[in-house]
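Batch 3, record 17
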Amino acid sequence: MQATTKVTQRTATTPSGSPVTVLAFSGDISSASKDAILVAYHGLDSTVAKVLLDFSGVDYINSSGIAIIIQLLLEASKSSDRKIGIFGLSAHFQKVFTMVGINKYAAMHSDETTALGSL
Amino acid sequence: MKNGSSVEVRIPSQLGFEKVAMSTAASMAALMGFSPDRVEDLKTAVAEACINAIEHGNQLNDTLGVVVVLSTTADQLEVRVIDDGVGVGVTPPSPNIDRKMHGEEDPRGMGMFLIQALVDEAEWYQGPPGKSFVRLVIKLDKENQ
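Prediction for the assembled complex:
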């Protein structure tokens, strides 16, 4: 009965011209999202250095879904050359992500333009 | 809304149905005049309480239901989430993101922490099957704090 998570991948560019891979999530992020999110992340080319997670299309995130994001960040931390950022979270989920400490490992931004400018 | 109003929702022990209870709680809180950000806090707390009841209390046994009772007074909304488990004896320690990021702590296990952080009162009661519950309260007089 859990809603599905859709992940789409696209490439954006920082103001300085560097490529950034954007993983855009839509639907719910819950325990049922693990395969969709981690398969998309594992599918990134090893040369990808900058990744943004776009939550603009996400309505519902629960603690199991947050755990999957932490797992993604943990895997990203093993690659010293890869930088991860987050944008598009509602004010509520920015607060929740900060409560659990995700902001220590991935900078959070309100929108894509700001996020691209930070990379 | 009349003081003392009460609504009861029974959901099956299947993940995803917590959103039914969450939406009901959000509607009641909005009717009482809680601000949108407090409604969002309550939605997450109720969803997490229901997920705990489904996964841990009822062990994902979909023949068992989770009962959510929402009761109002003039200044607060109380939510009881009741399951058939033995209840929560000891509250787990707060999650530690550094330990999680070093693989020393399960990435999961944040539900009770979020519940406690997002509502004004959260208490867990142990009882016989069908009597264990978590009680959550949000108060209108805490709106601007």
